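ok trying again, last paste got cut off:
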Amino acid sequence: MRVSQLPRAFASAPIRRTLVPRTCLAGAVRAFGSSAPAKSPNATLQHIHKKQPMTLSTPEGATTTMTTDASFVGMTGGQIFHEMMLRQGVKVVFGYPGGAILPVYDAIHNSEYFEFILPRHEQGAGHMAEGYARATGKVGVVLVTSGPGATNVITPMQDALSDGTPMVVFSGQVPTTAIGTDAFQEADVLGISRSCTKWNVMVKDIAELPRRINEAFEIATSGRPGPVLVDLPKDVTAAILQKPIHGATKIPGKKPMVHVDDGPSPATMKSIEKVAELISIAQKPILYVGQGILSNPDGPKVLKEFVDAANIPVTTTLMAMGSFDEEDPRSLHMLGMHGGAYANLAMQSADLIISLGARFDDRVTGNLKKFAPAAKKAGLRGKGGIVQFEIMPKNINKVVKVDASVDGDVTANLRHLIPLVQHKDRAEWFEQLNTWKQKYPFSYEPSAPGEKLKPQAVLEELNKQVAHMKDKVILTTGVGLHQMWAAQWYRWRHPRTMITSGGLGTMGFGLPAAIGAKVGRPDCIVIDIDGDASFSMTGMELMTARQFNIPVKVLILNNDFQGMVKQWQDLFYEKRYSGTEMHNPDFVKFAESMNCVGIRAKTMEELPGAMAEFLACKEPVILECVVTKDEHVYPMVPAGKALHEMELGPSVKFEENAAKFQNSWMGP
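nice, full thing came through this time. structure:
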């Protein structure tokens, strides 16, 4: 089949000017599978804003009036999809067309109401939707075809599930009459995706389509956000709705993520009062903040108000970086396996740990038996303990047994705690924390003049050059050493400016996530901090940035290795580099081959100028920084060790006596 090519002029068009060009769809269609022809030509949708909106879900426990909605009558399933995207406020769709989903693509072509971004691979579409959702707080929407189109989004869906990212994936499917016949590009997408979604459903009747789409968006944003998949057989999207449908949707047990604080229940208020009592007793409290604080738009603001009121130090997980200003003297930055030594020591020394929207991940706790010994001891004596604020009740006590818990919206409950706490100077506690900060800072040996760059120096230079505009800079990352160096050496000051793959650790996440973030926040500079191995997973998405004129920036720390795995091979496998050495392309020429800009820096002498050129560039651009091969990321908590048993570096010994610490905290 001959297909037309994207006109050259479109490559330079502004993102929001020319939307969903017909040639973009024609040049990217997958092989056609089992199909049913549309029953009518594409109809105009100019009347959409004159229709009466469909009744949305009622609050839990409310009486549902089964009204009817005639506004969809005469529409194809594809046109209903378009209408529902408008009603849900969708501004952008990331996807890749194919035969089974063509009725939908035909209905949305040249839509004036939302953008369409075509990736080079469906995995890219999924990560773009994640980046968009994480940068904006809105649902990321993906539209793919059946079979391989749907299976290629499995990794992004699991990534979104692990990190609590709201995403709705619409996948094409063979006609209902062909399901179960092993038809071309048929796959049991419901079965495959069941474990990596909050909910999934196949729409078997066009009359169900508006309700199912509405449910998908509600479930994706309710409670802890996450991914939802809606499977769309081709005969359903090609069919024409003949009669009115029920306009009400009721989802038992699901509460929409509308942040209206009607006040806590008596039981919740009692739990909050108990937390306030523990705070008044504790001598060494600490706030352990996870991504849950970002689920509510007011989360970071309320967190700051609480810290000001109670004067408690704050440490954050990788996913929550930026939720609390790291230049605030009460910030202990990131904790965990590669977190700050002072943050880890604080967690082990604190007599009260208050977890806000965090899940006690193994990368944070280290050896669970040795985790938080002082807090556990204080909890037994009623003088402190571990407290968990969590929106999902099933996650309370899931990993760590807590002494008190508050379930529900973390931000709302934290707001109710503020009037109950008193400001204390905690001079002795902060003096100890500041001593650890001075004694155990993040550190590295600078490279000599003319030598290859140290990766830490690259991040320091970036941090320096964007210091005056941190509120307008978003960083995404791939997964590996570069991810940890970005967390350590860049100072995070604003929420939703750190976008990374945390729970699943998906290499290749950085570039497509940056594209999605830039589409959602075009006013921001968006930089993908990547490694050579991680970038290579999805590097072709740079062509997506070029095609749609999305000026993302990619900073590659190139050490010609899968650095994180190599570090473990260095430390624990006698430097047997099995499968970790990379043979890379010339990344500058790689960028130039896509009509993008390529810049390279090899030494400290070249770095400042190259970084300035990189930041000033108005086109998609790669800055390749050639870094040393043998640099490791420290601190590091080895597998099976406690947070206070971390290694600070090959030449920096942890001077505190871990055994003495353990005895003093837990007793003989």
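cool. The domain at 266-439 is CATH 3.40.50.1220 (Rossmann fold). The longest helix spans residues 266-281.
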